[in-house]
Amino acid sequence: MKYIEAGNYEEMSRIAADMIAEQISGKPDCVLGLATGSTPVGTYKELIRRYEAGKLDFSKVRSVNLDEYIGLDGTNDQSYRYFMDHNLFDHVNIDKKNTNVPNGKAADPVKEGARYDELVASLGGTDIQILGIGHDGHIGFNEPDDVFYAATHEVELDDMTIDANARFFESRDKVPTKAITMGMWAIMQAKKIILIASGPDKKEIVDKFMHGPVTPRVPASILQCHRDVTVIYSPNK
Ligand code: PGA
Which of 138, 153, 154, 158 is catalytic? Predict the structure, then answer.
């Protein structure tokens, strides 16, 4: 794994945006694997800035997102579809038909998981996958467990994840307790992976997933088995 320590959050975002921009310029119809959360917001702002400056064209770009809360549809302002529209898609010339987020309202999450993995496969996999990391080491919503799950699947969110995400909701009891997330197959088939993390609170988990044992108790540790991962860490948020 390649490790870059950025001077601050803005620099972390710029480096990640550089890598994504290079991907889009080199392959205009590339498949981006996208993430939600507060960490990638600066990266998306930087991509929007470059689009507005006429330096990036998203017209042929396809995208797949990592996860979605179960029970929320795209009109809910806490859904990840809404997040993506507001933080990136509505501000660039991407065709929304080419953007994909798991359906949190699917009647059968198992079928939805299979549909999503088939979709990722039919796109030829992602060219570049952007990831954040949870304090418990989750990527997407793959929470610490006894095993790594390969398929896109339904998960119960950890208390730690619910606590962390409560800041986006009116109160903690409004945070959905379940989500649907890409599993390790869809994440690991990416040709290139960028993991971004910021703040002193993420330092310990970054060290642990990069240098500790590969274990489903630290889901991000599986990235040690991928051939092209860049970790960009900023000590401040
Ligand atoms: P954050 O979330 O970017 O809001 O810290 C990261 C994650 O939980 O994957």
Answer: 138
Is residue 139 within 8 Å of residue 206, measured between CB atoms?
no
Question: For 169-189, what is each residue's pLDDT tens digit?
Answer: 999 999 999 999 999 999 999
Sorted by sequence, the CB contacts under 8 Å of residue 163 that are 6+ apart come out as 172
For ligand 1, atom 1, name the residue with the nearest CA: 37
- What's this model's pTM, rounded to 2 decimal places? 0.97
The model's pLDDT over 125-184, given as tens digits with 9 standing for 90+, comes to: 999 999 999 999 999 999 999 999 999 999 999 898 999 999 999 999 999 999 999 999
Evaluate whether 222 touches 148 at the Cβ level (below 8 Å). Answer: yes
Assess whether 67 carries a catalytic annotation: yes
Residue 98 makes CB contacts below 8 A (sequence gap 6+) with: 60, 61, 62, 63
**Residues facing 208 on adjacent strands:** none
Fill in the DSSP letter of residue 74: T
Apex 79 CA angle, 114 and 140, nearest 5: 55
